[in-house]
Write a structure and sequence with these properties.
There is one protein chain. The protein has helices at about 5-15, 20-25, 30-35, 45-55, 180-185; strands spanning about 80-85, 90, 100-110, 125-135, 135-140, 145-150, 150-155, 160-165, 170-180, 190-195. It is an alpha+beta fold. Helices cover about 20% and strands about 30% of the residues. The chain starts with a helix and ends with a strand. It contains 5 helices and 10 strands; from the N terminus they run H-H-H-H-E-E-E-E-E-E-E-E-E-H-E. The strands form 2 sheets. Strands 7-4-9-3-2-1-10 form a 7-stranded antiparallel β-sheet, with no helix packed on it. Strands 6-5-8 form a 3-stranded antiparallel β-sheet, with no helix packed on it.
Length: about 200
Amino acid sequence: MLSIGPKIKAIRQSKGLTINDLANETGLSKSFLCNIENENTSPSLASLEKIANVLRMPLSFFFISDATLPRVLKPEQRIRAIYASDGRTVEFISAMSNSEMEMFILDIPTRRPGQPEVEYHSHRGEECHYVLQGRLEAFHGNERFLVEAGDSFHWDGTVPHKVENIGTEPARLVVSLTPPSFFSSSPEPAMASGEEK
């Protein structure tokens, strides 16, 4: 259900208008506007158009679902997934549920002696990576290439691929997947921590 009343109230207040101001400029009664804002009644399209004109908002704004509104995700609200075998972690920075995109920060520690290589994996969709720090070796099918801080790479996720840290410091990347597929394509069990609020 769309909550039109609270949207009208929030915009009215952000513009410094009182309920009396809105009543005077729209020609609608104060009690009617109060009932709309408190969700005790629903405005007709004609009434809503008058309100939208005074508030200088497109009529369509009032019909936007809350699910499409932007979300801010604070660091303490992010979900982290930790890999047991090599200590790499992902920290999700995308915040909208049911999105067609997934973004996370990937931290890959330096390689330990005797540590097994990371397995190839694949999934539907695409991946785009931006290297924030470190030196990495990226494998995509039969292709192998070196990347470092400032480089980016983009590939088809259906082709088996993996990324290894070959530097002397931990590596950090920003990764975007579309469609979201991290948990379904992960070759190793991950433990999640943190909570999206």
